Amino acid sequence: MRTSIATVSLSGALTEKLTAAARAGFDGVEIFENDLLASPLTPEEVRARCADLGLSIDLYQPMRDIEAVPAEEFGRNLRRAEHKFRLMERLGADTVLVCSSVSPLAEDDDALAAFQLRRLAELAEGFGIRVAYEALAWGRHVSTYDHAWRIVEAADHPALGTCLDSFHILARGSDPKGIEDIPGEKIFFLQLADAPLMAMDVLQWSRHYRCFPGQGGFDVAGLVGHVMRAGYEGPLSLEVFNDVFRQAEAGPTAVDALRSLLVLQESVGLTEPPAPVVPTGIAFAELVTPDVEPLSEILEALGFARTARHRSKPVDLWQQGEARLLLNTGPAARRDGTQLAAVGLESPDPAGAARRAEALLAPVLPRRRAPEDAPLDAVAAPDGTELFFCATDRPGLPSWTGDFEPVAHKPPVAGGVHRIDHLALTQPWHQFDEAALFHHSVLGLGAQESVDVADPYGLLRSRAVTNADGSVRIALGVGAAPSADEGGRAQHIALATDDIVTAARRFRDAGGRPLPIPANYYDDLAAKYELADGELEAYRELGILYDRDADGAFRHCYTETVGRVFFELVQRDAGHRGYGAQNAPVRLAAQHVRRPVR
Ligand SMILES: O=C(O)c1ccc(O)c(O)c1
Ligand SMILES: [Mg+2]
User: Where would I find the VOC domain in this sequence (predicted)?
Assistant: First the structure.
């Protein structure tokens, strides 16, 4: 189906919004009146710009407080409408949105509303314009889609139809099934938005918290299914009022927006992009660093050994059990400092995974490799992390490990770390919802609930995405405000162990510096849990944190931070799905005390 986006959903001047929408690949736009009023371009110039960009103007909006008013007031409204119809002629827009009235002058009189909307439609018809009447969830007398439709039906004019907006319908808890009773050709327009489920005033909710379909808690796809079954043939158009998107760069937001519509169309069976290929493990995590010393000291103390070196690049492979870390001292490191730059995802079908990612607008990365290297398909996640779809020593598939030559090394410590438990990637502040949708739709990972964690200097939100057996876990996090501070951009690699006390003690005895945890924390732990003899003392001695729920216990401790990166040791009971969120405020406070090493 055709895709469209309301200019209100994107930041910037009208021309920037239009460019972003076109570049992302939208077919059309809804022009929001305020964007036009604030633009130095004439309507004719806007029309030409849209034509140049290959965008249709699918809707002009909104007209407000038109219907069910005293005759004199309605006369003034018609005069106002005529002005706007002339403007729309210049713009080349043929559908106008009329929101249900919020005016105190409006009467609770459906017959009057129908009569006046019919008059409006007669006027519009003369200009070749169609009027789409939409129930605002906070409309004075008309606030549900079925009520708006009854009025449109009663008005009975070919130039009058209804506009459905998923936010208004789902925020009010209306049953969208009734949409199927509206003739498809009378649904003039469909606006789509999701929103997080919140208990708040519906107007505030709508104007500040809407998000793209799949990013919130509404069943937008279910609603679209009803609209399709009604026979709707117009565009799928995003209308998202959101405080974050208003500030974020329009280009990436538009791509994010279109991705949400691609996924939505797939989920209602309108399109069939390449199926998701769910990763089956984390093959490696790649750190770039200008100076390997501080990282290699930590890795050695954790029991890792440098086992191999890349044949043609300054990249070392450090390994312990199935945990593989790459330390890259190439040019990117000198530019960006120490950070987690890439993740290798073990994929049953690397090429298929890349095709899915590309179909969902993930930037495909050029293969920077020597001719003899294993072919590696890679895409960029919204935060810039490179995701490699790869195979590790699996029959029939080229293994990325073949690009490395073994180097002499001491055997890695046995029984220490056995694999990567999870990766925690801090997202740019404006890309949190986008990141969750990306990992869910592109990689086929399931998104867990988002949790808020208190930081001494703000609030951190975190949401994990995982595969079914937990062999891939990525915790996406974001600070409350833009932060230049390294702490606000921290990333970490959590390493799984079966015996955290032994692993943490070995780390400390080998010269590792565990993140110190305040004594108050352990007093509280003693109050909360009856731990086995000696357990609390060992935790206190080694800075180990403890969390428990019905599914078992989670024990964890941290290293110091290098650049943006630190490590965590994790001992997770088999059924436990958490990440120690309860302990995160203590960890964050401790990290603020201890600034990064370099
Ligand atoms: O918040 C509003 O006023 C508003 C305006 C136009 C719409 O289509 C809408 O859904 C809400
Ligand atoms: Mg709307």
Answer: 281-392, 419-560
Which residues fall within 8 angstroms of residue 449, CB to CB, at 6 or more apart?
A: 463
Phi, psi angles (nearest 5°) of residue 359: -60, -30
pLDDT of residue 545: 98
Whole-number Cα distances in Å, 556 to 4, 16, 299: 47, 47, 17
- For ligand 1, whether the C-beta of 239 sits within 6 Å is yes
207 lines ligand 1 (CB under 6 A): yes
CB-CB contact of 420 with 567 (8 Å): no
Bridge partner list, 464 = 475
What does each C-alpha distance from 399 to 197, 346, 375 come to in angstroms?
Answer: 44, 10, 9
494 DSSP β-pair partners: 422, 568
Amino acid identity of residue 543, one-letter, is G
| Among 9, 103, 241, 243, residue to substitute to test ligand 1 (most atoms within 8 Å of Cβ) | 241
Q: Find out whether 542 and 277 touch, Cβ atoms under 8 Å.
A: no
For the cut 70, the answer to whether the pLDDT of residue 481 exceeds it is: no
Domains and CATH numbers, the chain: 3-267 (3.20.20.150), 281-593 (3.10.180.10)
Among candidate residues 138, 166, 135, 157, the one with its CA nearest the CA of residue 148: 135
Is the pTM here over 0.90, yes or no? Answer: yes
Instruction: Using pLDDT thresholds of 50, 70 and 90, give the confidence band for residue 352.
Output: very high
Alpha helices (H) along 289-400: 292-301, 331-336, 350-359
> Who contacts 332 (Cβ-Cβ below 8 Å, separation ≥6)?
288, 341
With b for 16 or more beta-carbon neighbours within 10 A and e for fewer, the 441-456 pattern comes to bbbbbebbebbebebe
Judge whether 433 and 268 are in contact, CB under 8 Å: no
| Cβ atoms of residues 473 and 466 within 8 Å | yes
For ligand 1, atom 11, the nearest C-alpha belongs to 136
167's CB contacts (< 8 A; 6+ apart) are: 137, 191, 193, 194, 195, 206, 210, 218, 239
CB 136 within 8 Å of CB 100: yes
| Mean pLDDT, residues 177-192 | 98
Name the residue of 136, 166, 242 to mutate for ligand 1: max ligand atoms within 8 A of Cβ: 136
